[in-house]
Amino acid sequence: MPAPRQPSLHRIATAQRAVAILDTLAENGDLGTNELARRVALPASTVSRQLGTLTDAGLVEHDAASGRYRLGIRLVQLANAVLARLDVRTEARPHLEELVRITGETATLHVPGEEDAITVDFVPSAHYVQHVTQLGRPSIGHATSAGKVMLAFSERTLPTGPLRAFTKRTLTTRAALAAELEHVRVQGYAEAYEERESGLNAVAAPVFAASGALAAILALQGPSVRFGPDEAHAALPHLLERARAVSRALGWEG
């Protein structure tokens, strides 16, 4: 049987520019042509042509009144096609809801991404004060509980060079991160207390597939004034129980 073809190592510059434009719109919201051109370091004429093509494809929308551009609705359709094959969302949803009922804090579901863990589902806390979670938001590998679980229980190599300090509590050296990940593997869960954002704490646990590979990550998060280390530790048995339940639903027998 012939081996499957691998992606070409050659890259198409126009496609890379289109991706850069989409990424910039995702990060910054509505932008005009000139402002977008400055952010992606391309001539405005090049960006204008790219925007015309992306708009025709429905990947970008143009607001005629303001002249600004934003991400298009077709991206939602494409994202839903990706999410539809993630059966773990179906299995995890009732457990997310139960975690919120028991703990009162926001429960999130992540899948391993290329560099970070990606949020694919969440159930918000009923509290008035809560952190705003977004689908598709990356959980930084060295600075979040979900990201640490991804690094600890997958085959990914550790980031090289200095690590970005998001707060004064962020791990910023490879040695410190390696030690933290070993601790995560031993205890079976990860913690992050104001490491990605000041005032936000979180704990996370791995979900395994039938093969034993990391399939997803369940997490709980809340404001530090309400979800401190004591509250997080009290919630851990429930989090671990639900992570094991989702793993078993996926065929894991560990």
How would you explain this protein's 3D organization?
The chain has 254 residues and is α+β, with helices and mostly antiparallel strands. It has two domains: 13-77, Orthogonal Bundle (Arc Repressor Mutant, subunit A); 86-249, Beta-Lactamase, CATH 3.30.450.40. Helix content is 42%, strand content 19%. The chain has eight helices and eight strands; from the N terminus they run αααββααβββααβββα. It has helices at 13-28, 33-40, 44-56, 74-84, 88-103, 145-152, 174-187, 229-249, and strands at residues 60-63, 68-71, 106-112, 117-123, 138-139, 190-193, 200-208, 214-223. A six-stranded antiparallel beta sheet has the order 5-4-3-8-7-6, sandwiched between helices. The longest helix has 21 residues, at 229-249. The chain is globular.
Secondary structure layout plus pairing:
Elements: H1 13-28, H2 33-40, H3 44-56, E1 60-63, E2 68-71, H4 74-84, H5 88-103, E3 106-112, E4 117-123, E5 138-139, H6 145-152, H7 174-187, E6 190-193, E7 200-208, E8 214-223, H8 229-249
Antiparallel strand pairs: 1-2, 3-4, 3-8, 4-5, 6-7, 7-8
Helix pairs in contact: 1-3, 2-3, 5-8, 6-7
Shape: globular
Distance between the termini: 33 Å
Count of individual beta strands: 8
Reported for the largest beta sheet, the result is: 6 strands, antiparallel
- Unreliably modeled segments: none
Regarding quaternary structure, what we see is single chain
Structural class: alpha+beta
Radius of gyration: 20 Å
Strand content: 15-25%
In the CATH hierarchy, the architecture of the largest domain is 2-Layer Sandwich
